Amino acid sequence: xEGWITDAYTDLKRNRVILWVKGEKVRKFEFAYRPxxxxxxxTASLNEMARRLSAIEGVRNRMVRRKAAPRMQQSEMxxxxxxxxxxxxxxxxxxxxxxxxxxxxxxxADTPIEQRFMLxxxxxxxxxxxxxxxxxxxxxxxxxxxxxMPRFNIATLSVSLAESPPSTSTAxxxxxxxxxxxxxxxxxxxxxxxxxxxxxxxDIILTSGGDAFEIRHLYNRAEYLGVDGFTLGRDAxxxxxxxxxxxxxxxRIYYKPSPVLLNGRLHIDTENAFLHAESxxxxxxxxxxxxxxCPQQLSRLSPGTAISSMETIEAMRQNAVVPWKKNRxxxxxxxxxxxxxxxxxxxxxxxxxxxxDVYGLDFSSLYPSIMxxxxxxxxxxxxxxxxxxxxxxxGLDYHFCIKRTGLIPSVIGNLIERRRKYKRMxxxxxxxxxxxxxxxxxxxxxxxxxxxxKFGSIECHESINAxxxxxxxxxxxxxxxxxxxxxxxxxxxxxxxxxxxxxxxARDISSETGIPxxxxxxxxxxxxxxxxxxxxxxxNKYYGLFDDGTYKLRGIEIRRSDTPEVVRFAQNIMxxxxxxxxxxxxxxxxxxxxxxxxxxxxxxxxxxxxPVEDMIITKRVxxxxxxxxxxxxxxxxxxxxKEAGIDVNAGDIVRYIISASRKERNVVPEQVLTExxxxxxxxxxxxxxxxxxxxxxxxxxxEKKILSVFRYS
Length: 713
Ligand SMILES: [Zn+2]
Description:
Elements: E1 2-11, E2 16-22, E3 26-32, E4 36-40, H1 43-54, E5 59-68, E6 73-82, H2 85-100, E7 105-107, H3 113-120, E8 128-132, E9 135-138, E10 154-161, E11 172-177, E12 180-182, H4 186-199, E13 204-207, H5 210-224, E14 238-239, E15 245-249, E16 252-256, E17 261-262, E18 266-269, H6 274-291, H7 295-298, H8 303-317, E19 320-321, H9 335-342, E20 346-348, E21 353-363, H10 366-373, E22 391-392, E23 399-400, H11 407-423, H12 427-448, H13 458-481, E24 485-490, E25 493-497, H14 502-513, E26 517-530, E27 537-546, E28 551-554, H15 565-578, H16 584-607, E29 617-620, H17 633-643, E30 653-658, E31 667-669, H18 681-696, H19 703-711
Parallel strand pairs: 5-19, 10-13, 13-18
Antiparallel strand pairs: 1-2, 1-8, 2-3, 4-6, 4-7, 5-6, 8-9, 10-11, 11-12, 14-17, 15-16, 20-24, 21-25, 21-26, 22-23, 24-25, 26-27, 27-28, 29-30, 30-31
Helix pairs in contact: 6-8, 6-12, 8-11, 8-12, 10-11, 10-13, 11-12, 15-16, 15-18, 16-18, 18-19
Bound molecules: zinc ion.
The site of zinc ion has 6 residues, from loops.
């Protein structure tokens, strides 16, 4: 038959690679396969290994020469293969721990077996293929841009429960599929559900939070009630490849439930699907094809994991083996976030205060472009072949190869190229695919500097920063030479003031550097803010009004997700008053007028007549209740929720108000809020004063000063 590969995984019991193919029908295919892994080390250790392994049934081993990623140097290795997938895992584990106290290294052991199978058979997820028996033929190309997507039948699924908060024994009261509510006896509904999915030839099930509870609950209830043959996939059961975990990213804790992957149907949990949320099914499929990660798994991972997988695949394509690196937590930082954390990309501290006639300009995809242009990669740094004529890194004692393209630049180069080509295609066809590529590129820099990433290297990371700084400095000097004043410069962005020809300036820089340098916009006015602590210019806090009348806001409360509506409202009033500012003096008058208007709001709040819903504060909890050492709002919220029988995981969101009641019970979560709860006006006035002071601190409006204005009005 002919069709698209929609899912691939291994059946560990039967030692088969499973492919699901969707053509006119949807069919499952099984393949026998011998996975391999490699060990290198000194001769004595390898001989010892070979001796031990040869005693195990079904295991073959032999000495081979292989290139080893990431440095891509040849060495002698022991190749181990087996037809038993579980033995493969166990032996690799043993070799890995053996390696822990010798100089042995293990390679290729953690690349998913199905990925390797697909690569060797020249197919990939979402490829259009022809399959007869055990013969797989690819009728598609991974480089294709105009590939066709299967026409998926998608069903949204949600479940209502008989009681809230639910427990494992809570009955299901109704099931909603594609907006249609089915309400019946529980057993009957569970019996009917697979039949409804089959009748609709459903390929993809979308849930909102299915991983966390709903899907497992459906299976559990079906088992408890003895509903025969219940399943949501086309095959029985589901897979949960890893346990639930809380993880940290950019100083924040997130909770990730154990995934529920279906067999023969794809389950996508929209609450746990970054790429799908940002760039839809099209974007998810695009990255799935390129990364060899099936859409079901990929949807639950960060774009950074996709880039890591692409690098591994590229190394395997170049016949290299890839080292096993354990304990690689999810990491997801954008270039800006990373650089900001060490101020590495800062070249001009912002000129704090009010400015008019300002241009904002930025290099597009600066860091990925540098990686590609300067050939930055673990396998090209300080190469032997270009010691004298290699590409020197500004200010650092490193060079990069000019003779051979590195692994990372090949991967990144391909992504940049695809994105560029998609840019020339009709918006409705390419915008989601382009957007997904953007996200993968944005995270690529973070992975390069990440010590635990397979292809990470701190030297490469430093080099990218060094080249980036050089480019931005070049752009800044050129601006000054053309009569502009540089107000602020960081990472890939520059703010300049002046009446010169900004368009020509941008064009000149683009052609001189080979990296697109675009005018993001002209600001009628912009205010760069300072830090409350030391008064220094803050790197990423500003607000400004573009020529087209839209605001750009960075680092002020109105942008933050935890800010209560009432504080947003106050900042909004201020922004609307400031809108038509012409110069600094005018701005100051408008700020004073804005404050007078906010005083009216303050009176409402003080009278207690403001709606309680607008006082809700939203916070992500960073730990479990018993892990909090000291009292704070989050802890109090968790405590109140616990009293009400509601458990909250680290990484979950809590919403609460600060009430006027006794001190230790003043945090009232939304779930237990009653009509008699009143907000504490003083608390909210302080929040408003703080938020206004963030905006107006460069003009002498401290929180204290604003509060005293509130007090005497
Ligand atoms: Zn070289």
